Each structure stands twice: as C-alpha cells, then as structure tokens.
Amino acid sequence: MRKITIKLLTKLPEKYVTTGAILILALFVYGIVGSIIIMHLNPIDAIYYTVITMATVGYGDFTPHTGIQKIFATTLALGGVGLLAYVFNIMLTSFQERMSEYSKGAMKLKAIKNMEDYYIICGFGRVGKVVFEELIDRNQNVIVIDKDEEVCENIEEHDNVVVINKDAIENDLITKLADEKCRSVIICTGDDVINLFTVLTIRETNPDAWIVTRASKLENIKRLRKAGANKIVSPEIIGGKDLYFESARPHLLRVTVRHTPHKILGEFKIITKHGCTLENIDYHLPGIETPLTRQIKTMNLLDGEKYINYLNTHDDQRQALGNLYKISNNIHSHLISGPDTNTFDNLIKDLESVDEIIGVNLSNKEIAEITKKEIE
To answer: What is the CATH number of domain 2-109?
Structure first.
C-alpha cells in the first residue's frame, strides 16, 4: 500500500506542481526580503524567520513590535497556511482521482476476465465506430482501446463492452489482452505508423493472434503484411469500388434467375452479346438474407468458354458448383453493368428465353422471402 501511495503522489498533474512551486518560491522571496527590510534581520536570520513563520511554528525568537512588522508577519503566516492548504488539497484530489482510476481499472480487468471471448478494437474513429456497431449488432463481447478521453466517455459500457482510455501499446496492454480468449484484434486508427507498430507489438508475443488492420495508404499494405497482419483493409480500395458502383448505379441491373449449371454458357453469351459486363453472381440460400457472392467482372465471351472447359475437365469443381446450385435451389442473381436501360430491356427479353426470371433489382430481403417459401 505504501508503494502504491508513493506512486500516486509522484504522478501529480504537472501544471499543479509547477504552480505550487512558483507560489512557494514567491512567498519565500517575499518573506526573506520583508524580514530584511521590515524586521531588520540579517540574511541568515531572515531565512530562518521566513521558514518558521510560513510553517506557523513561531518559536518566539523574533517578535514583531511595530504595526508594519505585525502586518508583515500576519501576511507571511496566512500565506504559508493558505499555500499548505492548497498543496494538501492538490495531493488529496490527485490521490482520490488515481485511486478511482485504479479502482475502475480493476473493475475493467475483472469484466474482461469474465468474458469467454472478445474482439479488441484499437482506435474508435469513424471506421472503428462502424466496426463496433457491427459487432454489437451480433451480440459480441468488445474491448475498445482509445487514447482520446472524450471519445471513451461517449461509449456506453455494459456487460459485453469494456472501454479502456489508454494507448494500446502502453505497458504492453495490447499484448496482455490479445491472448487465447481474443477472437481478433481490429486496428482502426488512421495513422499507418501506429497501426504498424501495434501489429509488430502484438505479433512479437502473440504469434497466433488474428490481426486485422486498416491501411490508410496503399503503399503501406505490404509493410503491414510483413509485420504480421492477417488481413489488411484499405478504405481507399473499398471507397474506390463504392464510388464506381454508385456512379454506375443508373447502369446496373440485378437479375434474379433460376436455372441449372448447364445453362451458364448460354446465359453468358446473351450478356456479352449486348456489350454488358457480368460484375458478380449472388447465390441465395433459402431463407437467408445475405447471399454467397462470387466476383466475376468480365464481358469477354472467351472467359466464359474457358470456364466451361475447365469444369468439363475437372470433375471435382463441376461437382462443387453443382452442389452450390442444389443448395440454393438454382436461384441466384447476376449483377450486370451496361450502357443504358434500352440495352437492359433487350437483355432481359433474351434471358427469358433461357432462364426463369424471378425478379429484377430485388433486394436481398425480398429474395430471402421468396426463397424461404422453397423450404416451407
């Protein structure tokens, strides 16, 4: 306990310590100068008189007689008492604050200890907040670490959320938390240098930790991967794709169809015939809103022919694709980009000749309601 008390008192706020030191020095100078001029003491006695008067000891060695001397002695004694009260109040307040921090810290550690597993989010900016909301929506345990006190205060803590207002790499905090109970460490700060150092810190002592980090700049992706990150997400790349799809949205068509694998090439011939690009294919599991997505991104008929030849020469891949079609009851959606709506109208007419078209531009929720009926 004595060591803890000493540690707490040695961490007084710097501005208060500086202010207290300046006030003590100023009062000490005032006492010495006044003792020499008003009390008519020599420098050694002036220092002695100043100290005992400020400390309100008053041995009676030197007694003020005149009015000005009594006023001087009174102001010096009151200044000493006030200054002692000020310093004592700072020490007590700081002690209470530190004790409160230690108490809160102990409670947080206990809460983390009681968690069966958890995710760690380092950095609670715009990206970190989105990740946090996604995890909470899925009832996951989350530990948020951020240096910004105001940010941390605005995060509501409860049974499955613990907020730590510290630097993640301070005192090896992140390495202690990224143990076997940690499902993943998600590093979301906008500073790639901090992200890199955090990855290195974790990987140094936790070789099995699953680390996902943000890369603000594309050129830092390789560095983060070499440092030991399992997954790197770049808002630049994601943002670029989003911007493209948003700009192309008036020229995007989502067609939900039902057909067996043997019609793939015929369908692809129709898409390329109209100068359109097959962006991706969503396979819809019955009653499940989120589809399985395969990125295609091609408008070359040769790609489709190569793929069919590949299936014809690889039985295992052909069987795997057939199983996927069976699981989804042959229902899937094509995201197609094209030049204009007239092209899409003609495309749909041609697709109707080879496919059963379930709907156009349906949402995942609407499709889930349709596929749900397949298993009822």
So the answer is: 1.10.287.70
